[in-house]
Design a protein that fits this description.
Layout: E1 5-16, E2 19-31, E3 36-40, H1 47-54, E4 62-67, E5 70-71, H2 77-87, E6 88-92, H3 103-108, H4 118-131, H5 147-160, E7 165-169, H6 177-192, E8 197-200, H7 204-207, E9 212-217, E10 220-226
Parallel strand pairs: 3-8, 3-9, 6-7, 7-8
Antiparallel strand pairs: 1-2, 1-4, 4-5, 9-10
């Protein structure tokens, strides 16, 4: 089976203040359909840079990135944007919701860039909100929702386009412990229903909820293990 995500000899360098900053140093990762993966490591290890590349928000300096059977390593910005919209769902720590738009409109927003009728966008958005338990909050604005509800809206938005893979960047970082448990239960459910999930986190207890844990240190993979809790 073709991996959902296949990274080969990935390097990322930045020029900063006349110096060459080598952030990623030869990353090799394969992730298959319906895996539940945490990418963890200390601050500055390169995990957020890797997430940006996996999410087609940035491109590697060297190496290859295959998303399914598509080589996205050298795509131009317009093509990358199309791939992001159709194949990747994002969940961010800060929710990134539009404050003056309803939960329904926030969830439906990514679908505006597809050739899809307004009624179809609305149908999909309502279904996604129902999937995360917020069907009764469709008309609410973000400031009328709790932090956990806002993150559920963000997850619904990520799911609405039926992406190949769900990328979550510190999705519980702004939440209290009770709400964190609630959101992680939702991710567990999505995985059990067939979603492929890759989660960036610096929190060991969050990483241990995932099926596989990849640790990055100094731009290299220091360990890649299955979590025995799920065996």
């Amino acid at each position: 089976m073709t991996p959902m995500l296949n990274v080969k000899s990935l390097h990322k360098r930045y020029a900063m203040a006349g110096e060459d900053l080598h952030v990623l140093r030869g990353i090799d990762i394969q992730i298959r359909e319906n895996e539940y993966v945490a990418i963890t490591g200390p601050s500055g290890s390169g995990k957020s840079t890797l997430m940006n590349i996996l999410g087609c928000l940035d491109r590697p300096t060297e190496g290859q990135y295959l998303l399914g059977d598509q080589d996205v390593s050298g795509m131009d910005e317009q093509t990358l944007a199309l791939v992001r919209n159709r194949r990747i769902g994002f969940v961010f720590q800060s929710f990134n919701l539009m404050p003056r738009e309803s939960a329904l409109n926030n969830v439906a927003h990514p679908l505006r860039y597809r050739r899809m009728s307004r009624s179809e966008r609305r149908h999909r958005a309502l279904a996604a909100l129902a999937r995360v338990g917020l069907a009764d909050r469709a008309t609410h604005l973000p400031n009328q929702l709790s932090g956990g509800q806002r993150q559920r809206v963000a997850i619904a938005r990520a799911l609405c386009g039926e992406p190949s893979i769900l990328l979550a960047d510190e999705p519980t970082g702004n939440l209290d412990s009770a709400t964190t448990a609630d959101i992680m239960n939702l991710f567990d459910s999505l995985w059990s229903e067939g979603s492929t999930i890759v989660m960036i986190t610096h929190e060991p207890d969050i990483a241990e909820r995932c099926r596989r844990v990849i640790r990055i240190e100094d731009g290299r993979i220091s360990s890649d293990r299955l979590n025995p809790v799920h065996d």
